[in-house]
Amino acid sequence: MTLLTYREAAIEIEPGEDVLSALLRAEIDAPHSCRSGVCQSCLHRAVEGNPPAAAQQGLSNAQKALGYFLACVCVPDTPLTIVPAQEAGTRSEAVVHSIDRLSGDVVRLRLEHDPVFAYRPGQFLELIADDGLGRHYSLASLPEEDPFVELHIRLHPGGRMSRFIAEELAPGRRLHIAGPLGTCIYEGVDPDQPMALIGSGTGLAPLIGVLRDALRRGHRGPIRLYHGARERDGLYLHDHLWALTKRHTNLHYVPRVLSDSGPHGGDVAAAALEHENALPHTAFFLCGGEKLVGRLKRDLFLKGASLKQMRTDTFLPAGSGR
Amino acid sequence: MASLYERLGGEKAVDAAVELFYRTVLADGRIARFFEGVNMEDQLAKQKSFLTMAFGGPNKYTGKDMRKAHERLVAKGLNDSHVDAVIEDLSRTLRQLGVGEKEVQEVAALANSVRGDVLNH
């Protein structure tokens, strides 16, 4: 019986041996440092099988639910198929269900996937074009309710993937996806805990997924959703979110438009930092560009929020990974 | 006698201290600049590793790791005054958590014992 499969290759593991030692012995350049389950630099993810509890100590509930574990203290007694923490895993085929404009430069792409693509709302996947070109996009859909996988994609003028999406994708077209990845999910939130969802641009996609997941599971605590955009057109789900606040009294929607001087004008990060005050008890979801997420994470932490209660999805420029 | 790490409460004590300590350090104008642009999760994991070492707990941190980890900061001007500030922040954090003065002094002494490695002396 093969106990350890790494990127689909069988790795020999001695009785009682930890995963990191086995990887290093197989001459795999696995990152590591403390070798005692503290520093978390040897983080891997099990795509099949369940890592022992001892290998998940100190990880967040979201990470545990998604199969992340520390290789240096993981001595498996059942088979595990593992990949490095940042790797999407194997590719599979998906079919374009529909593609619609949500605003001037944001499109909604819905994909069908058979068998069902297993994910949690708020995670992201890798979308792969014909020539192997890949980009990460967040999942805005809810697997329990939607028969498709939904992505919100900002089209960048001159971007290779943007051109592929705008010019070549049409219903029925086949392409590949891999994943899911990311830990920006509802798992581990207490139903009575205040939640603050903060994002800009298509950072709204994972937040919508998390919001729908929370509402479906009967979240009782207050939920504040902050969405920022440069122009009014960028609040691409404004009417939908506004309507949603009428149906759910614990949901508050705070839109902010940078270029506007009206009641919804201003910077989304400043609005969130001003309004949030139940900091140590609040579950934060921060999604968007590196600058926004970095600023929010640091300022909220210094104001008293716990890093353990922050889930983030940072959008990085194409080609720099994520 | 139980080890200092056990007397302080083991991993639970480290967990309680790590965010408070990091928040204190980030808000300390004398040393905050050394943390600019770092990944906060990675940094928190390192703080946890450092605290486990400072509490005398199970940790395989070696002098070599310490030197390597701080090389870049020494190049940026890290010196004795900054190490003093970190140990002061650590002591303040422990007092805020209700740790006794004797244990605070022991932790400070353990942290001080890696000064030479941190500063590449």
UniProtKB/TrEMBL annotation, chain A:
Residue ranges of every copy of the FAD-binding FR-type domain listed in the record: 89-187
Top-level division of the source organism's lineage: Bacteria
InterPro entries: 2Fe-2S_ferredoxin-like_sf, 2Fe-2S_ferredoxin-type, Beta-grasp_dom_sf, Cbr1-like_FAD-bd_dom, FAD-bd_FR_type, Flavoprot_Pyr_Nucl_cyt_Rdtase, FNR_nucleotide-bd, MRET
Cofactor(s) the record lists: [2Fe-2S] cluster
Domain 2Fe-2S ferredoxin-type: from-to ranges: 1-88
PROSITE patterns: 2FE2S_FER_2 (PS51085), FAD_FR (PS51384)
An example molecular function term from Gene Ontology annotations: iron-sulfur cluster binding
Name used for this protein in its record: Ferredoxin
From TrEMBL, chain B:
Positions annotated to bind heme: 70
Cofactor note: Binds 1 heme group per subunit.
Gene3D superfamilies found in the cross-reference section: Globins
Keyword terms of this UniProt record: Heme, Iron, Metal-binding, Oxygen transport, Transport
GO MF term set: heme binding; metal ion binding; oxygen binding; oxygen carrier activity
Pfam family, one: Bac_globin
Cofactor: heme
Protein family (similarity comment): Belongs to the truncated hemoglobin family. Group I subfamily.
Protein name from the UniProt record: Group 1 truncated hemoglobin
